[in-house]
Amino acid sequence: MAETPKHLSLTPALHDYLVAHGTPPDEVQRALIEATAALGPIARMQIAPEQGAFMSWLARAIGAVRVVEVGTFTGYSTLCLARGVPEHGRVLALDVSAEWTAIGKRHWERAGVAHKIELRLGPAAESLRALPREATFDLAFIDADKPGYAGYVDEILPRLRGGGVILVDNVLWGGSVIDARRQDEDTRAIRAFNDAMARDPRVDAVMLPISDGLTLLRKR
User: Fold this and answer.
1) Whole-model pTM?
2) N or C, which end of the chain is more exposed by having fewer CB within 10 Å?
3) Which CATH number fits domain 12-219: 3.40.50.150, 3.30.470.20, 3.40.50.920, 3.30.420.10?
C-alpha cells in the first residue's frame, strides 16, 4: 500500500492504558486471568483483555443470541461472549480438554453466566457436523488448531444467519505470516486461510490488529 500505516506499537504501559480506558476486566475476569497464568507458558493461549471486551461489545452490538465457540481453553473468551448475549442467549463452547475447561467452568459459575453456556468436549469438527444445517447462530469465534480453521468456517457458515459474524483469532501469528523463513504447518495454514478468506465470495472480511490479529467475517 502506498499510504504510511497508521500503526502504533504498544508498550506495556500503553497497553495498560488501553485496557483501562475500555471496559477493564472485572474481579472474576481478573481471577480467571490469574488462574490461567498459573499454568505457565501455555497461558499465552488466553485471549487479551481488550479482545474479550471487544467480543462482548460486538455480541451486544449485533444482537447476538446464539453463539458458537471453537476452542475454549480456560474459558475467558467464553465468559466474555456469555456476558455479551442476553439472559436467554446461549453460547455453545467446543473444546477437547476437560482439564482446561474445568478452570473456566468454575469462573463461569462465579460470574453468574454458567446457565448460558453449553460445553461439548470432543473434536470440534465432529461436534459442528453433528449440528443441524440450519442458520441459527448469530456469532462464532474460532481459536483452535490452525490447520482446522478453513474447515471450521465451512461448517459454521451454513449454520450462521445472514449478516452473522465469525471472529477468527491469531491471524497475524506473531508477525510470522509475512516471514518467508517460517514454513511450519501452523504458519502455512494461517497464510492459506487468510488468502482464502480475503477472496471468499461468501463473506465480507476485515482483519484487525487486535492482539495477535483478529479477522471478522460477515456472512453475505
Assistant:
1) 0.94
2) N
3) 3.40.50.150
